[in-house]
Amino acid sequence: MIDIFTLNENLKNGKAENCYLLCGSDEKLIKDTVNYIVDMNVDKNFRDLNYEEFDGTFIDSFEPVINACETMPLMSSKKVVLVYRASFLNDDKSGNPKLHGENAFKCIYNYLSDVPDHCILIFYDIFKSKRDKPGKRIYKLDKKICVVRADKIKGYQLESRVKEMFELRGKQIGRVELRIFCSLLKENDLNILENEVEKLCCYVLDEPITKDDIKVLFFKNNYDDIFDLTNPIANKKIKESIQVLNELIYKGEKIPYILNMIEKQFYKLLELKIMLHYKEKKQNIMRELNMRSDYAYEINVAQSKKFTFKQLKNAINLCLTAEERIKSSTIDPKTEMELLIINSIVYEK
């Protein structure tokens, strides 16, 4: 049994099989992989002629699938036959009862040795939860066809894969930088990951990869803009704070939105500081405050340490007062925001 990354690498290197079973909890990842195999083997102009699919939930027998596999491709050297939601290949008895019996499974199992060279037969089975595991039938099939565990990889396994991609390009990346980079990746698709690695390598050229390089390319969003504003406030830098505020307004961010995000960040820092005070575990804190990476946790902890409890409570009260004044008076909203920043900074411990 191989993982989705190994499958993608094999396909890219021309190591293809003519029968696959993809199983896992991530249906989107599986569908993307199936489409990739189809696109590699079937001309899009003749896709309707050389691609057939069957819903494993409803087919009465395996004969239509066999007939599709045996039919020669038209205007192409290959055809692809897909049987999706093929839970009858696992031990889940809630699937298709007409194909789940031992006789039906034996028929399918025996045919897999006879799939013609012109056909690529693909099954996929979606697990009901991430905790589900392949059953005995899938392990039995693994001895005959290529079985692929199609789950998003993470943690050390993901970091190891990504590190290999950098090394193939002659680049070394530090452990901290690698962890930050992987925490920001939104897809586990091999091609997308390689594009992101290539982008970073092209950006740094012959220079070492730094955290700032990664942040410039991949970590700039609205939340980071707000973090960039609360950070100089924490460091008591009035001029820099006002400058970041002006940049946000120039970029088109509305003042009520900026105020709301600042308030949320101060609330988050206060909650974080309280949880740290009571020695809550890191994983509990990340889950409660919706921090999706170790890097996000570390930078928020560092920022929270620059405020006292009183300073954070005062900053939140200042946000609430500013919000009320902006809504109920004719005061210039930008001036009110500047006063909020100044008062947050000059407040005594």
UniProtKB/TrEMBL annotation:
It is an enzyme of class 2 (transferase). InterPro entries: DNA_pol3_clamp-load_cplx_C, DNA_pol3_delta-like_C, DNA_pol3_delta_N, DNA_polIII_delta, P-loop_NTPase. Pfam families: DNA_pol3_delta, DNA_pol3_delta_C. Residues 224-343 form the DNA polymerase III delta subunit-like C-terminal domain. Its EC number is 2.7.7.7. Residues 20-150 form the DNA polymerase III delta N-terminal domain. Signal peptide: none annotated. Keywords: DNA replication, DNA-directed DNA polymerase, Nucleotidyltransferase, Transferase. It catalyses: DNA(n) + a 2'-deoxyribonucleoside 5'-triphosphate = DNA(n+1) + diphosphate. GO terms for biological process: DNA-templated DNA replication. GO terms for cellular component: DNA polymerase III complex. GO terms for molecular function: DNA binding; DNA-directed DNA polymerase activity. NCBIfam families: holA. Belongs to the DNA polymerase HolA subunit family. This is DNA polymerase III subunit delta. It comes from Clostridium fermenticellae.
